[in-house]
Fold Negative regulator of flagellin synthesis.
Amino acid sequence: MPTINNIRTNQPMTSGGNVSHAETGKGKPTAEAKTSATDSDSVSLSSQGQSVGQIHQQLATQESFDNEKVNAIKEAIANGSYVIDADKLAANMIKLEDDLKGL
């Protein structure tokens, strides 16, 4: 595969010495020029990539947040009645970390 190094404006690009006959107008075609049009690239995702795709699809179908719950929390913060349960918060953080390790 040709590399792109030291390209300057208005200079022709070359492929590192493997110039095809179409570029020079003479000679035999190089191996690159003989490449079949049926060759194609393919991509495959790892199981982790597939899992991320599935999670993305699931999240795309769900509402982004519960507006009623957000308003209730805002009101509780504003009137000083919002209480944070440190043990529950820590347990949820640990659960999240464990869930992420499985991906």
